[in-house]
Amino acid sequence: MDILHKSYEYGKSPLTPSSLSSSSNAFLFGGNISRSLSPLLHGILFRSVNASWTYHLAQTTDKNEFLAKLADLKSIGVSITMPNKVTFGPLLDDLTEEARGIGAVNTAFVRLDSTGNRRWIGTNTDCVGIREAILQHNPHAASKAKGQPAMVIGGGGAARSAIYALWKWFSPSEIYIANRLQSEVDDIADFFTKTMPSTRLRYIPDVNAAQNLPSPSIVIGTTPDYPPSEPGEVLCWEISEYILRKSKGGLLVDMCYMPSTETRLLCTARKAGWVVIRGTEVLVRVCVAQQVLWLERESNERGVEEAMAAIAMPDRNVKL
């Protein structure tokens, strides 16, 4: 995986021949994570390569607690989720291109400087998870999507990861954005003007504006799965539904999987003839990318298959 090769730009490996058998720890820092799937998935992936590492939940937004865990020499990896993805980034020693380009950190890994001191490097594997989930379904998706429009539904942090993944690896002509508030889209456009100046974004204000647009080849949903109630939410749904129903043969990724993996958006897309990818599949690919950086080895396919089987079980009301 390319992220592993690039990680050595930030320093040398901290691992030794006995590291996998040591009692090293990885942590998830977030606000409401008691029902997270991450311990289950990381446990499966660790076991698949015979790593005696343990993945812990750290339900906190306390920066001092975060820094204390980083200082522990047994800490080898960190996951970061809401509401810490932006606030914890500046506490790390350096950030990768992905973290800077998206403006949020969901993963940190250790590399050693020239004197052997540990450095914590922040990155964003959400975008890698999106890329890998799409390519696993269609290895030719990047060439098929090149020069075609794509679309993102939503205007939060996950939308930024989706925009980054689409623009960097799928080369769309432009990216449509449907969202409840234009002001959020304006903020995104301003941000990407600074971090990825070539990005072309188009806000869709209403269904009429969508009627004459070429159909997107890839759509990524990033909004919660609850019935729209506010006017902006209703309009966003109407735009999304219209585009899915007028288009055929595209690919939809819905990053939401709560309270059910069978979201309203995913069901609408499938009924309209789209290939669909559940948010839990993206979640597994995010965890795989994190472990590539921590274990410094490519993923074990047996472990990935076992993780996929675990999230294919009946719906769980959980979050990453």
TrEMBL record:
<dbReference type="GO" id="GO:0004764">
    <property type="term" value="F:shikimate 3-dehydrogenase (NADP+) activity"/>
</dbReference>
<dbReference type="InterPro" id="IPR022893">
    <property type="entry name" value="Shikimate_DH_fam"/>
</dbReference>
<dbReference type="GO" id="GO:0009423">
    <property type="term" value="P:chorismate biosynthetic process"/>
</dbReference>
<protein>
    <recommendedName>
        <fullName>Shikimate dehydrogenase substrate binding N-terminal domain-containing protein</fullName>
    </recommendedName>
</protein>
<dbReference type="InterPro" id="IPR046346">
    <property type="entry name" value="Aminoacid_DH-like_N_sf"/>
</dbReference>
<dbReference type="GO" id="GO:0019632">
    <property type="term" value="P:shikimate metabolic process"/>
</dbReference>
<dbReference type="InterPro" id="IPR013708">
    <property type="entry name" value="Shikimate_DH-bd_N"/>
</dbReference>
<dbReference type="Pfam" id="PF08501">
    <property type="entry name" value="Shikimate_dh_N"/>
</dbReference>
<dbReference type="InterPro" id="IPR036291">
    <property type="entry name" value="NAD(P)-bd_dom_sf"/>
</dbReference>
<feature type="domain" description="Shikimate dehydrogenase substrate binding N-terminal">
    <location>
        <begin position="28"/>
        <end position="107"/>
    </location>
</feature>
